[in-house]
Amino acid sequence: MGEVQQVLFYSEAEQFVQSLRCFKLxxxxxxxxxxxxxxxxxxxxQAVVDATNNVEESIKELLISHEKIPVLxxxxxxLDLWKRNVFPKLLKMDLNTELTFxxxxxxxxxAILVGLLEVLLYHAECHEIAGDSLHDLxxxxxxxxxxxxxxxxxxxxxxxxxxxxxxxDELTRRFNKIxxxxxxxxxxxxxxxGEHGNExxxxxxxxxxxxxxxPSMFASLIDNPPWRRREESGQWLKYSDNNKWIKVTYEELNxxxxxxxxxxxxxxxxxxxxxxxQNYKLNTSNQANILKLRSHxxxxxxxxxxxxxxxxxxxxxxxxxxxxxxxxxxxxxxxPQFYNDVEMNCKGKYEDIAQxxxxxxxxxxxxxxxQQAQRFAATYDMxxxxxxxxxxxxxxxxxxxxxxxxxxxxxxxxxxxxCQVKDWAKHKAPCKAISSVKxxxxxNKAQK
Length: 448
Fold this sequence. Notes:
Layout: H1 10-19, H2 31-52, H3 58-65, H4 69-85, H5 87-91, H6 101-120, H7 124-130, H8 133-150, H9 154-158, H10 167-196, H11 202-211, H12 214-223, E1 228-230, E2 236-239, E3 245-248, H13 258-272, H14 274-279, H15 284-291, H16 299-304, H17 308-318, H18 337-346, H19 350-362, H20 366-379, H21 382-388, E4 404-405, E5 413-414, H22 417-447
Antiparallel strand pairs: 1-2, 2-3, 4-5
Helix pairs in contact: 1-2, 1-3, 2-6, 4-6, 4-8, 4-18, 6-10, 8-10, 8-12, 10-13, 12-13, 12-15, 13-17, 20-22
């Protein structure tokens, strides 16, 4: 095994973790917020490097020892409320297509926070540090998975890049793409909370099972999977673990991705674990929804996840039972505190905040915009990122298997020259920024 690449030295990572703090929604996009965002992105990359290479997870230990996991959840909640209440107002303003990068960076930060929490919450001890903030994280995940279930097919068309698109089209497409990705990652977060949350508070499990009814939502995802679709031509597409739509045959649809495995294992935990059996309140509605799963069992699925045999047997027994009539018992529950606090502080102020963020994000000078793009490129060193990709690279334009990488930036892959030429208008600006950073990095190393 080769030497594990270090994105951060331990002392630098510790400094970043110690400085983490909760920002107000109105502070999003400020210089201080930008600085913390960049630091969290580097922490995330190092955490993924550590987890991928099965080495000591220093970032996890630092976040635990300094009790900063609730801060990450607070930042995710704040960003979620910004996307729902401020971003739509920005789209109605006069936007410059050449100045969409800063707002894209804000949107992309949500994926960074969700990815880092996914790495952390795999471990039981992180749930103990998260404590009551898990209520907020469950609220966030519920919002995302409900959107995933209820979203119409229209959003999928918006994710396809157009030959000509204005600033609103571009940002809407990026918004939907990131929303889809983080919604899928939310599935893993719910699964981990279902596995370890009872060690923090039984109230967490009660909220997961009954208030939000995640077992029924997970069953809906299996019954109507948003990660597969069929084109008018009859070609099947499936969303891969590499966050790309890829062409598959009908037979390949039953090959479980990691994300699909999370849904099935989550259902197994919710319905078969002791705390699930004791606390999940079945009624006529959710029983009917869960029983739809019976039609999705087949030999290929069970061969890939043999533990599902127990779930299959449970569903057959459940089909012979009469669910008790639903009733509304008196339940005292803890409210998601971060959501409540941020919404109370911003009530009636979203219009003013949108005006402030318009000036901050869409009136940036070209020099400052270039500096931000260069810092973004420097954070995502492709020599490190390539080592983390478990699947073969795919064309950035069409999603087919890629054999060629852009020779200038080394960042983007294409299946051939035709796609590279089509994509050049969009790729030109980031390509130059990344290439510039690489050249300066080489010069600095040579001088040392």
